[in-house]
Automatic annotation (TrEMBL):
Transmembrane regions listed in the UniProt entry: 12-29, 35-55, 76-98, 168-193, 241-258, 264-290, 297-316, 328-361
Organism in which the protein naturally occurs: Criibacterium bergeronii
This protein's record includes keyword RNA-binding: no
Membrane topology listed for this record: Multi-pass membrane protein
Record's subcellular location: Cell membrane
One family name in Pfam for this protein: AI-2E_transport
Protein name: AI-2E family transporter
Predominant place of localization: membrane
GO BP: transmembrane transport
Keyword Transmembrane helix: yes
Protein family according to the UniProt entry: Belongs to the autoinducer-2 exporter (AI-2E) (TC 2.A.86) family.
């Protein structure tokens, strides 16, 4: 037995033992993985932030400052513009969108009791005793005839005050930890963006040193494909969300539907989740509109159905599907399978992962076609 065969057998034995150990002690393995993720969470977050911010930074470098003869100045100015864009988004969210959403929630809570009473009165006008019907499904001792939404809301508020101090302490600790992790991750992201070429060069050298030239080329090609798929997906999904939010805001203002800005903002944020995300934003907006001005709810439902068809059949396949190089049919398949496998996380990563698989399969098929074509060309030349 030569040394190469011996090494292959030894490698297979080690891999088999590791797989067996992982399957036998999967709970311990999950705890170790969770501990490692928690330990490096600021740096993982920083990598994700750098990945997202690199998209506008690259745009600024190539489109606005590509004539600069000083690369370091070009990079610094591009990072500055990216940070200004990021801060502008935060300011808009904090100063405009969040106050509007808070006002909507306050209006919903104040108008909810009147809506319930109007609902009971409407059914009574149709000779339907809604209170009696609901009484069959209430627990013993509950008097449906003395039902008062204001009392129910006050009881809910009183019940929620128990353990307030502990809740405040836990919330404060969680917020402080999250803010600290975000700041550390953000600083780490700035270091990555400032020296990404040097980091990429050293990583490439390490991969070539460990795996050799031939395997390293395949690994780097695959990594480049994954990067392009995810980067194009993020930029395409963000563009699609902005377009959808703008369409809802303009059409709701034209139709006189209340709460156009918070509804459009919520729908835009939820639409960052592919295809199905806008539906959850629609439910929030519909609830708000029904409670504030019920007569406009029908118009809003019709508007959502129309714009959802436009978004699903025209905007999404062309903006997101085109940016990731994935046909519209496969975008829908990727989202559906991703949702069934891993929920929201599966929906988000399903499209770029499907794009990677689609590209690899397409390259494999094209490679086979090229191999089949070459003998035929040689025969034609010989003839």
């Amino acid at each position: 037995m030569d040394i190469q065969t011996y090494r292959k057998i030894l490698r297979l034995i080690i891999i088999a033992n590791l797989i067996f150990f992982g399957l036998s002690n999967y709970m311990l393995l999950l705890k170790i993985i969770s501990y490692i993720i928690a330990l490096f969470s600021p740096f993982i977050l920083g990598g994700c932030i750098a990945f997202v911010l690199n998209i506008p930074m690259t745009f600024f470098e190539k489109k606005l400052f590509n004539h600069s003869k000083k690369p370091n100045v070009n990079r610094a100015v591009s990072i500055l513009f990216t940070l200004l864009l990021f801060l502008l988004g935060i300011v808009v969210i904090i100063s405009i969108i969040i106050p509007e959403i808070i006002n909507s929630v306050n209006e919903v809570s104040s108008n909810f009791p009147d809506l319930i009473n109007k609902l009971f009165a409407f059914f009574e006008s149709k000779n339907i005793n809604l209170k009696e019907l609901l009484g069959y499904y209430m627990p013993n001792g509950f008097d449906i005839n003395n039902f008062d939404p204001k009392i129910i809301l006050s009881k809910i508020s009183l019940n929620n005050t128990s353990g307030t101090l502990m809740s405040i302490f836990n919330a404060t600790t969680t917020v402080f930890s999250s803010v600290l992790n975000f700041l550390l991750g953000f600083i780490f992201a700035m270091y990555i963006l400032a020296g990404k070429e040097n980091l990429g060069e050293r990583t490439t050298k390490l991969i070539r040193k460990v795996f050799g030239e031939q395997k390293a080329d395949k690994i780097l090609d695959f990594a480049n494909l994954v990067y392009k798929s995810f980067a194009n997906f993020i930029s395409g999904q963000g563009t699609e969300a902005i377009i959808l939010a703008a369409m809802f805001f303009v059409t709701m203002m034209i139709l006189g539907i209340p709460k156009a800005l918070p509804s459009a903002a919520v729908i835009g944020v939820f639409s960052l989740v592919p295809i199905f995300g806008a539906f959850f934003g629609f439910l929030y907006s519909l609830l708000t509109i029904v409670i504030i001005e019920p007569t406009k709810a029908v118009w809003f439902i019709a508007l959502f159905l129309v714009l959802q068809q436009v978004e699903g059949n025209l905007i999404y396949p062309r903006v997101v599907g085109k940016s990731v190089g994935l046909p519209g049919m496969w975008v829908l398949v990727a989202v559906t399978i991703g949702a069934s496998v891993a929920g929201i996380n599966g929906i988000i990563i399903g499209v770029p992962m499907a794009s990677v698989i689609y590209t690899l399969v397409s390259n494999f098929i094209d490679k086979d076609k090229l191999i089949e074509k070459k003998p035929q060309e040689n025969d034609d030349k010989a003839n």
